[in-house]
Amino acid sequence: MAVSDRQGRLASGGIGCYYGCRTRSWEDVRKWLERQRSTYLDNLLRTQLRQYQNGKVVTRDSLAISAREAFGAAGNDRRIAAIIEPLLAAAYPQLPLDWERLRGDVRTAEINRVFDGYFGRAPSTAEKAATRNFGVGLGLSLDSRPEHFSPQASPALDVIADLLAERQGEVPVWRIYEKLSEPPYGLPYPLIQLYLLAFVRRGD
User: Cα separation of 16 and 14, whole Å?
Assistant: First the structure.
């Protein structure tokens, strides 16, 4: 059956309107869902937090961790810290550094900067800043001169010295890693490596 040009244009326009209206409708729905998403997530989070707050934190050593206080904290970072920090403190009670003096998280990149800040030939601004931020807390420098390597009060270096004394000056490197990474110390490997290099530089 033949279709006139005018009828063809009308049909084409009708199809275009159908798809255009349909697209606009879906777009409106998508925007509405985005607006509602945060509301639903907030409500869900509040519901779940109430359930967790009414629960109990059970640990092997029966640590006094209040679920109400932990999950009532503002923000997930604080909630997680309220549980993880007591667990780590109980597992590693003799952490051989003063973590309260650390001005930030001791990540691998910062550990490398601390080493280069103390022992590099021309330390960069970031490397010098790392020694100021972490040197005193790690026991590698003094308050008066945080950029100067002066490990006069470093429990980690004392542990290494004691191991050497026990074994007449010969200790496999893996044994030092094992000693400092296990309870009661619990140091990560990159930090143990820094202490090993610092121990050599100290001249013991």
Answer: 5
Beta bridge partners of 145: 142
Which residue, chain included where needed, has tokens 């998508």?
Answer: 30
**156 touches 187 (CB < 8 A):** yes
To the nearest whole percent, how much of the chain has pLDDT over 70? 88
- Residue 184, preceding bond cis, omega within 30 degrees? yes
CA distance 48 to 135: 42
Q: How far apart are CA 123 and CA 7, in angstroms?
A: 80
Q: Are 87 and 59 in contact (CB under 8 A)?
A: yes
Q: What number of residues does the chain have? A: 204
CA dihedral sign, ordered 109, 113, 114, 120: positive
Tens digits of residue pLDDT in 81-108 = 999 999 999 999 999 999 899 999 999 9
